[in-house]
Amino acid sequence: MIELIDPISKQRLEESPEGLRNENGIVVYPLINGAYRVAASDNYTSNFGLEWNTFQKTQIDKFSGNTVSEERLFAQTNWQKNGLEGETILEVGSGAGRFSQIMLDHTKATLYSVDYSEAVEANYRNNGPHERFKLFQASIYELPFKQASFDRVICLGVLQHTPDFKASVKALVEMVKPGGELVIDFYPIRNVFTKVHGKYLLRPILKRVNHHRLMSLIRNNIDFLISIYTFNRRIGLGVFNRFVPICEIERTLPKGMTPEQLKEWIILDTFDMFSPEYDQPQRLSTVAKWVKEFGMADVDASWVTYHGKLEAPTVRGRKV
Ligand SMILES: C[S@@+](CC[C@H](N)C(=O)[O-])C[C@H]1O[C@@H](n2cnc3c(N)ncnc32)[C@H](O)[C@@H]1O
């Protein structure tokens, strides 16, 4: 069992059907729609609340019919399928729960999933209730758990969207118990051209557009954008697609989807590209250095390949 701690008062918390109670029996963080609400929703992740509640099922293997999340998770972690009995995993930034589903369905561990946004509602609808699953709306910087508690801590696709990447890595390392494991991935800085991209040119404007309006703008123009993207590739000018305001299709999306599914993923990923408050890629080597600095050994930083040619820059380590 993981000891629950109020990140503000540092008092011990107990679970109850109404919420998390402090030592005086008062519910300090209510349980609403399946998640303990340690944080309020009016924070910088409201775009993700909209994104994952709109595209609740899109990327969840058990609904999409593909196995891309399963392939990615096991390629990045090297965990044994159907293993980890009796262990605890902390997942930070769970979104709609694509990886929560895989950890619940393909390991025997107990999963504590955290997200700062209302995405926790989508995750609960996708994966709850479940006897090995606990869900918290909380920030990576104010986690309601005793430090050094978890056998494994995992954080996929999140760190670049936090305001202080290095402080976020530190917060994750602090949650791993001695001998336990950390697995993280993030947007990489590949070279000096990483930020010479339509995404980084337009984000300062588009991230300020009302999120519902931005979603409609993308939906209303997506067919046109896809046709430009496809045309550029057909005539050998795919290199210019980095300036077309649409997500990368070949290098990031799974194969074998129906045209409707593909369009849905493209709208999701394009919204995900422009709407976040923060988008701060990092070098693999820098993150590996931080992970060591915060007390991890056996650090491995590598590009993990999964689902054919998809790649994820991944850092793993063991807590000393
Ligand atoms: C791009 S989504 C990735 C979701 C999921 N891991 C996936 O791969 O589908 C990033 C998630 O990180 C969450 N997030 C951002 N800042 C956070 C913070 N400070 N604490 C916890 N979660 C955070 C967002 O709310 C969002 O759901």
Automatic annotation (TrEMBL):
This protein's record includes keyword Methyltransferase: yes
Which UniProt keywords are listed? Methyltransferase, Transferase
- Superkingdom: Bacteria
Task: Tell whether Transferase is among the UniProt keywords.
Answer: yes
One GO molecular function term of this record is: S-adenosylmethionine-dependent methyltransferase activity
Where the record annotates domain Methyltransferase type, the positions are 90-184
GO biological process: one example: methylation
Taken from the record, one Pfam family name reads: Methyltransf_11
Protein name in UniProt = 2-polyprenyl-3-methyl-5-hydroxy-6-metoxy-1, 4-benzoquinol methylase
Q: Which organism is it from?
A: Cytophaga hutchinsonii (strain ATCC 33406 / DSM 1761 / CIP 103989 / NBRC 15051 / NCIMB 9469 / D465)
